[in-house]
Design goal:
The complex is a heterodimer of chains A (524) and B (315).
Chain A lengths: L4 E12 L2 E13 L4 E6 L5 H8 L7 E10 L2 E2 L5 H7 L4 E4 L3 H4 L6 H13 L3 H14 L5 H6 L7 H14 L4 E5 L7 H18 L2 E6 L2 H7 L2 E6 L2 E7 H4 L6 H9 L16 E11 L17 E6 L3 E5 L6 H8 L4 E8 L2 E3 L7 H6 E4 L3 H4 L6 H11 L7 H7 L16 H14 L4 E5 L7 H18 L2 E6 L2 H7 L2 E6 L2 E7 L10 H9 L6
Chain B lengths: L2 H28 L4 H6 L5 H11 L5 H13 L13 H36 L4 H15 L2 H15 L15 H35 L2 H8 L4 H38 L5 H10 L3 H29 L7
Helix pairs in contact in B: 1-12, 5-6, 5-8, 5-10, 5-11, 5-12, 6-8, 7-8, 8-10, 9-10, 10-11, 10-12, 11-12
Classes of the chains: A alpha/beta (524), B mainly alpha (315).
Amino acid sequence: MIPALAIKNYTLDYATAAGPVRVLHDISLEIAPGEVLGLVGESGSGKSSLAWALMRHLPENAREISGTLRLGDTDLLRLHPRELTKIRGRRLGMVFQDPSTALNPTLPIGRQVTETLIQHRGLSKREADALAIDLLGHVELRDPAAIMRRYPHEISGGEKQRVIIATAFGCRPDVILFDEPTTALDVITGARILELFARLREETGVAALYISHDLALVTRVADRVVVLKHGRLVEEAPAADIFRAPRHADTKALVQAVPRPERRLIHDKPGDEVLLAASDIEVHYGRASIFRQAPPPATRRIGLDVRAGEILGLVGESGSGKSSVARALTGLARFSGKVRFDNHEITAARDMNAAYRRDVQIIFQHPDASLNPRHKVGEILSRPLKLYGGSAAEIPRLLEQVRLPAPYAGRWPHQLSGGEKQRVAIARAFAARPKLVICDEITAPLDVSVQAQIIELLLALRAATGTAFLFITHDLNLIRQIAHRIAVMRGGEMVDLLPIEDFDADHVHPYTRELMAASPVPVG
Amino acid sequence: MSLAWLVRRLMLMVYTVIVVSMLVFAITQILPADAAQSLLGENATPEMLAALRAKLGLDAPAWQQYLHWAGRIFSGDFGISMRTSQPVGPDMLTALSRSLLLTVSSILVTLLVAVPLGVVAALRQGKLTDTGVSLIAYLGVSLPEFVTATLLALLLADTLHWLPATGYVSLLEDFGDGIRHLALPVLTISVILIAHVVRMMRSETLDVLKSDYIRAARLKGLPERTVLFRHALRNALLPVVTIIALDVGYLLGGIIVIEEIFAIPGIGRALMVAITTRDLPSIQAGALIMAATYAVTNTLADMAYAFLDPRIRYD
């Protein structure tokens, strides 16, 4: 039987000013008709390059050194550009990572679904419309006829991804590439997209290459998994076996790094002393103007307290208001309500004195945006030191604390990797010797293995300094490993605030239960 | 475009015009020229001045004068010109119509030329066509309009004798001759505007072509032509609409130069004459008409933007 997709001895370089850089080394793999192959790798492993190579959409500096790419009996490497339009979308479909940017903002949804049907299946406009309504209904979109007339900004991220999936399946391709299709979505929406994928796959028997950095997720959707590391295939195994018996050291490290709620990383109990108590916090963005009313507050009368040395987890989907809480507690957003910290009462950002601002530090999600690109690491760290009475001589100690070599003080942020940048951001927060550090999704942009290292670092810092953490995340499995208590937010309200021991109990809020069900736990 | 949005936008426009009218009135109040004095001449006695001030309403408090003035303008009466003793309104509106004809034709020519040029330059990025288009665009931006105007007049009127160098002929009287007289000024303005718009169109097209949804459209197997015309063009046009609206503002102010050079009796020229002769009602009417035109143009641009970009409609 001819495989649906066959890659043989494929090697790819990128030409750079410093000479060629090899991104894919001698890759060989096959996908049988109807099979789903999971491709797992960290960022920089070359998994996206492989997808672009298959779609014949490589950047101009790509150099294909050797190998063959075959879709059924078609040699993709020998295709004339004009023949490509007969392959893309028709025999080889693709579902993209970020549905919010993959749809044209100025065209109605319907048009973006029907255009491929008209192009590839030769349907008339009316036939295409009818089929598109069918397809949208089939991906469980309510009122497909109305969706057809809407624009992308008028539907949610999950709905957009359903539209893109409907489009990809619409021309009944032989193979579909899924490039991290749930990464940009929140957990529950992502879980429903995966259910949809499983159903459609069963119905259509399409073969798929499912690319992701999330090993736990891939084992749930794929028949077979391959692991890509630095451009090499290091492991290939049935999905069910990879967690149970990883063979290669790199795979073992990946498996180790996947957060599992049952593997607790902290075992102590926090003290009884309440460090920070916030009550009735409502965060306000924007003010009323002559022409419009003020928008509703981003959070509704949130109350929470953090004890000395405690790790309090704050979880919720995007838009649930969890970052707004962080912004209010650091004085970055206007709020009403009361914050009590160290016997000091705060009702507005202007009440936050220098002592409070020193004691409560925040680390942001994107170190790229939070580190000044025009300042060297040493200068970034010297600011809080100067402000809070330290001296520049402490910089090597700070760097050592976050396990970076002292010479890194002379580097620019852009010379560091994502994980290293986040370490600098952590060092900056700890330069002030804070009592509470607010971590706002700080591992979200990182790979699992880097995430594991950062978490380990934070726990070591906590052990050394006794600092408390408010740890904001959407990753329930991760927070269940490290938090003493977990607060769950939805739509600006706090639906649960539970000690970790009670998390499996019966009285948890249905939404919390739903979140747990949607968090992919590794198979095997 | 929702009705509520449209109503709010129109209210904003009216509000702008009201504020501008207050400013215009206030500035002309501060001007050293005293209307009574300039009407009666230097030999006027204080009694005569006082009598005339009372007659003109100049002795009333400023806000009463403003309301009186604004009320008259609202009913279409812009007052009597001190220079010609004719009603100001009809003269100014005629002048405005000539300037608008010039502006609108220039913008049409600009759009017809600059949009395709910008797209072509983007598609041929880094190639000879792109360099050529960019070079011409830079020339157009860097030359002041009076230089461009003089050069074009020297070439097309004095040397080649294809077009008349100056003057204005109404299109209603003699369409062919009217167009011939319009050609040089329109060409001059277009050269400058094309330079703006080409550069904008080029960089926007490049940006849009790099976007995820264009990649998605290509990977859906759509032919390049469809990708370009259906998916890229509309999105690349959005900022150009804003540029054009800003250029209209530039034109209304900068058109004075063009009108002077080519002897077109437009609003810019009328305002110049009014200012040099201290013709207060004409200055007020001219400034107000220009501001109102600008406010209307901006509203139209916003509506065009909302039409092109569905995300604006429910804002």
